[in-house]
Amino acid sequence: MTPASTPLTWREAKRRRSMPVTPALGGRHRFNELTFFPYNNVAMQDKSEATNFVPFKVSLCNEREVLVREITGDDKAGLLAAFNKLSADARYARFMAAMQQLPEAMLEQATHPSVEREFALVAIATENKVSSIVAGARYAAAPGSDTCEFAVTVDDDWHRLGLARRLLGTLIDIARSRGFRCMEGYVLSSNTGMRRLAKRFGFSDLACPDDATLRVVTLALQDSERKR
């Protein structure tokens, strides 16, 4: 198991022929949207001095509302509950492996992102006075890289409401403001929902040279205007 202080990107894991635990809760660090959730110094501004994220509310198209905020160490139970709601197919699509449970080490990493190389959001819904995590988004950067990989995940019951779009847009803005030059993600070829969303924001969509079942979506952050 890879220590929390030295998480690997999917490409690094591929080179080392390993499948480490990553802060994005994925075994191979291949991030997929619409299934659930989810690197040291790079040549950019000091992330530890970045402006604190201000939580905001999002009104969705069905009149439901969520609060978007940074993930915290108190979100372990919420993340686990969200994972437990997923179907077997959804878990496979997210982790690209059969996941029956989330190890404590994964939850610990996911809820304590590195200030310098990661950022993670959760969307909280409160219904009948009960609050729960219904979506999450994060990026993570490898050591020495100005490219970050992303993940945006939405609970099945909250699809097609515009939540994924708001989360990805926010994540792009944060990554750009913190000096990252490129954002990319590895997406199942069959995940048309994520591919459409990425295209809407201006991501390119190319075949993954290492895996025919994947697409690589890429956005040049510093050279592009934000799209909706």
From TrEMBL:
The keyword Metal-binding is assigned to this record: no
Keyword Acyltransferase among UniProt keywords: yes
Highest taxon listed in the record's lineage: Bacteria
Residue span(s) of domain N-acetyltransferase: 66-224
Pfam families: Acetyltransf_1 (PF00583)
UniProt keywords, alphabetically: Acyltransferase, Plasmid, Transferase
GO MF annotation terms: acyltransferase activity, transferring groups other than amino-acyl groups
Annotated protein name in UniProt: N-acetyltransferase domain-containing protein
Organism classification: Bacteria, Pseudomonadati, Pseudomonadota, Betaproteobacteria, Burkholderiales
